[in-house]
Amino acid sequence: MGKVVGIDLGTTNSAIAVLGNDGLPTIIHNREGDNTTPSAVLFDDGEVTIGKQAKNAEKSLPNNVVRYVKRHMGSPDYQFIPDGTDDQYGPEVISSFILRFLVDDASEFLGETVNDVVITVPAYFGDAERTATRQAGEIAGLNVLQVINEPTAAALSFGLKGGYSGKVLVYDLGGGTFDVTLMDISNNNFTVLASAGDRNLGGFDFDNEIIKLAESRYAELGGSIDHGDDSQQALIREQAEGAKHRLSTADKAKIRIGTESITIMREEFERAVADLVTRTRYILEDVMEQSGLAYSDVDKLLLVGGSTRMKIIERSVQEWTGLTADKSVHPDEAVALGAAIVAEIRNAAETGAPPAVRATVSDVVAQGLGVAVLADDGSKMLNSLVVQPQTRAPNRIEASSFSTVGSTREINFQITEGDENGAELQYVKVLGESLLKLDYDLPAKAPLRVVFVINEDQTVEAELHDASNGKLIGQMVVERAANLKPADVTFLRKQSKEIVVQ
Ligand code: AMP
């Protein structure tokens, strides 16, 4: 194994880092000299272009540029068809292009081909999104050592730096996702106490609020927006994001639509985003409640992710928690730096070489896992929770409280993701299902045992056993409804190799 790297595959921006000879992680600058790369992909004339150039092309070629693809990870229905082509690209393939760009720059910088990577994901990502992220790495031709949680990575990069010990609260608001993790650090042992999040809450939503404000102001001035005009929409979005950034330091910012110049005041912006900010508070409080700790037990507050630069975020989080944010972590870099540390630890474990850093990490699953069971009255299927949220991962959890209804030779085994025990199935996510066939009859009320195996990546495998004789009825490397089949990954890997990524 050569050099290993850590990758923060972000909704808006991505970053890549490596552990230096001094045992400290450093960001690898991309070919344009930047420490982060916009997660934007341009398809033009058979060529694939990543990063700043792709982002800038959005105004002129809006239907050839994909951004925010992370929001579609694990969504089987999303396919991007660039204008003027019949080609279809799913979220895994689009993400694989971003990964290849980052890794090519790392190989160039390190003077050797990089193959082995650790990729970060939001802590709140479920099984399908994590599997899709790993598959993106595989399609890019990479060996994915591990998929790890972003706030955990950020805490690692903070905690290892100065040998910190204490309880650390990580508030991670990125471009598209939000996570909160409470972690105990002691003697380089990193133990997540609780974690929760929202996979669809980030800077993108704050941009949308500015867009709404600007468009309604424009309408008051007599203007009308053509929402079908993708170039104009891209231009407004770009300006909205720019205005949001300015409002992090200035009291007002301007957006130009047509011939009008519209001024947005910071107070007005803060009023418009108040509900979004409150949503993060509920999640923060949920994490504290689940950990059984109070804010006064927390020693450090880390603000991670570009969106924590917004004044309203820093001010609100400090106000709610009574803590002062630690400024020693770089909001855009901490996650990739932490991923580089985990990459080194994994590399050492696999090669037997002494690691340049020593740390242990113990994480938790942010969402519960369960199986679908028939309601007592036989009318509907309900969720029966087997793995509680905040269960340590990796792990193997068994539950024996299940049984067949009537005598049968087959069982439709459905596994679920979601926190609510007893909820109807539409309120949880069915991760996958298998029709498990037996070569003997199970009588009515035969006891069944369900086993969940949660891997290092926090992806899941499930087994069903006949509890009367311990026999394995069926193993489910879940027929994942939302992911590519292994053969598809192999095919896409071969196919996308032909495509030059620049
Ligand atoms: P990340 O995914 O962590 O790179 O976060 C990207 C998000 O941070 C995007 O929504 C950016 O618009 C936002 N962001 C970056 N810089 C600033 C800033 N100065 N003020 C407000 N938001 C910012």
Extended strand count? 26
Largest sheet: 7 strands, mixed
Terminal CA distance: 26 Å
- Secondary-structure-derived class: alpha+beta
- How many separate domains make up the residues? 3
- What is the correct CATH architecture of the largest domain? 2-Layer Sandwich
Output the radius of gyration. Answer: 24 Å
Tell me the CATH topology of the largest domain. Answer: Nucleotidyltransferase, domain 5
- Beta-strand percentage? 25-35%
The CATH superfamily of the largest domain bears the name ATPase, nucleotide binding domain
Task: Supply the number of helical segments.
Answer: 11
Helix content: 25-40%
Strand order of the largest sheet: 16-15-10-11-12-17-20
Question: What is the overall shape?
Answer: globular
Low-confidence stretches: none
Chain-averaged pLDDT:
94
Regarding quaternary structure, how should these chains be classified? Answer: single chain
Question: Which ligands does the model contain, each kind named once?
Answer: adenosine monophosphate
CATH C-level label of the largest domain:
Alpha Beta
Descriptors:
alpha+beta; Actin, Chain A, domain 4; ATP binding; chaperone; single chain; seven-stranded mixed beta sheet; nucleotide-binding; Substrate Binding Domain Of DNAk, Chain A, domain 1; binds adenosine monophosphate; stress response; ATPase_NBD
